[in-house]
């Protein structure tokens, strides 16, 4: 039997970024099914039982809300792949589990980085359903398909050595540079874990439209089938080009060795859309490995950026071994350099990918 969430309305629990599409108009609390495993993207009402590593929840509004024991949350189940934080899988049941990402992702932690505390623990109170009692999933709120644009829109893809290598900063900086050059720019993050900070940064940098994989129905992309991730990339790109942008910048999360990243880079959809790649690296060795791996796979690498650009010595080390320029965030924010990258994307060599 289902029960309306009122007086525990959807505006009373803390609504996480991953659950931002929910409205309180017709939400009902559904009993937790016994003997069933949660599915990727299932939306639930949960209660914090102890505060651990994640002490704040990223709300649908973008605000970081301090967490307290007893807080109720609107969140989604999904596995997570984050070498600097948690490796987490879907739980075996709807019992007690962990908050594995600040954007509102629940899972069961399998391993954690030595620098992280034990996860914030939660108790799931109910599945969330619609007025007809149908369980809700993040996938139910995906943007609809749109017809692909018939015009060519230059598309940059940003990848890196790992998480926290500077990919999002690289995307935002390039978006800003292209915008300063007079272009209308679209940006998207197509893989990763639900977190609003990245698309919001893209908008702050000047993106006319910024989307991410949650907009096409995925709380995370870890463990998602490759065809669905590739279809998601295609749909996100189509929505951006339908917004009449002059250029698109795409971020692929994590590093080249992460399974979904490696597979997506070699997928025909990515190869058809990517007109040039920027590689974000933590150090010069990573830059050398990444550029050589991408070039060997036939990708048109335009430049190196990322954390290594904070060190002049690391920049010189990289420049001594690669045949592409190294640009820091300040360089990419320059209209002149952004225009030069756009010119190189337009070159015939860019379409040999």
UniProtKB/TrEMBL annotation:
InterPro entries: MobB_dom, P-loop_NTPase
GO molecular function, one term: GTP binding
Molybdopterin-guanine dinucleotide biosynthesis protein B (MobB) domain sequence ranges: 157-251
Pfam families membership: MobB
Protein origin, superkingdom: Bacteria
One of the GO BP terms on file: Mo-molybdopterin cofactor biosynthetic process
UniProt protein name: DUF1611 domain-containing protein
Taxonomic source organism: Actinokineospora bangkokensis
Record lineage: Bacteria, Bacillati, Actinomycetota, Actinomycetes, Pseudonocardiales
């Amino acid at each position: 039997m289902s029960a309306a969430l009122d007086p525990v309305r959807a505006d009373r629990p803390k609504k996480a970024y991953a659950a931002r599409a929910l409205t309180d108009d017709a939400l009902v609390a559904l009993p937790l099914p016994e003997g069933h495993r949660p599915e990727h993207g299932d939306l639930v009402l949960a209660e914090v039982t102890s505060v651990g590593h994640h002490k704040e929840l990223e709300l649908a509004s973008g605000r970081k809300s301090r967490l307290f024991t007893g807080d109720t949350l609107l969140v989604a189940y999904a596995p997570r792949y984050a070498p600097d934080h948690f490796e987490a899988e879907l739980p075996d049941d709807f019992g007690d589990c962990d908050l594995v990402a600040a954007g509102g992702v629940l899972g069961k932690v399998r391993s954690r980085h030595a620098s992280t505390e034990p996860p914030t623990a939660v108790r799931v109170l109910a599945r969330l359903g619609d007025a007809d009692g149908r369980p809700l999933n993040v996938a139910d709120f995906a943007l609809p398909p749109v017809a692909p644009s018939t015009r060519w829109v230059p598309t940059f893809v940003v990848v890196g050595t790992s998480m926290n290598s500077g990919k999002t900063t690289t995307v935002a900086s390039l978006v800003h540079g292209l915008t300063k050059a007079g272009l209308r720019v679209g940006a998207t993050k197509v893989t990763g874990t639900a977190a609003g900070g990245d698309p919001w940064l893209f908008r702050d940098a000047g993106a006319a439209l910024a989307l991410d994989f949650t907009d096409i129905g995925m709380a995370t992309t870890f463990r998602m089938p490759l065809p669905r991730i590739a279809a998601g990339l295609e749909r996100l790109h189509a929505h951006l080009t339908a917004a009449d942008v002059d250029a698109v910048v795409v971020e692929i999360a994590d590093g080249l060795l992460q399974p979904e990243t490696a597979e997506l880079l070699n997928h025909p959809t990515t190869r058809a859309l990517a007109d040039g790649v920027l590689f974000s690296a933590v150090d010069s060795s990573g830059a050398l490995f990444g550029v050589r791996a991408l070039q060997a796979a036939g990708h048109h690498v335009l430049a190196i950026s990322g954390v290594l650009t904070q060190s002049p010595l690391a920049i010189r080390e990289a420049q001594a071994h690669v045949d592409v320029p190294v640009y820091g965030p300040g360089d990419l924010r320059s209209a002149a350099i952004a225009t030069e990258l756009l010119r190189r994307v337009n070159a015939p060599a860019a379409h040999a990918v």
